[in-house]
Amino acid sequence: MNPVKESLDPVARSFYMGLLAYRSTPLECGYSPAYLLMGQRLRSNLPVSENLLSTRHGEKVKKYKEHQRAKQKSYYNKGTCQLP
Question: What is the DSSP string of 8-67?
Fold first, then answer.
């Protein structure tokens, strides 16, 4: 084992495991933050099925992001009025 990893106390180790769990947990769009950023799943200590490990960039993410962008635009422009 790496000496640096051995020197980490249990609190720091659990903090990093918590970060790993957060980064690999799917969001409401169905993909994890790590997958949205890097296009692949993170290796973790949790068992994962083989079909989830295959890399695929779908239109689902693009459509979801466009939907969210349009939704935020409507919220941003909600109280505005057209200038003369």
Answer: S-HHHHHHHHHHHHHHHS--TTSS-HHHHHHSSPPP-SS---HHHHS----HHHHHHHHH
Q: Is residue 26 part of a domain?
A: yes
Query: Which pTM value belongs to this model?
Result: 0.44
Domain count for the chain: 1
Q: Give the tens place of pLDDT for each residue, 26-57.
A: 778 777 888 887 777 777 766 666 666 655 65
Between CA 80 and CA 84 the distance in angstroms is 13
Whether residue 59 is contained in a domain is answered as yes
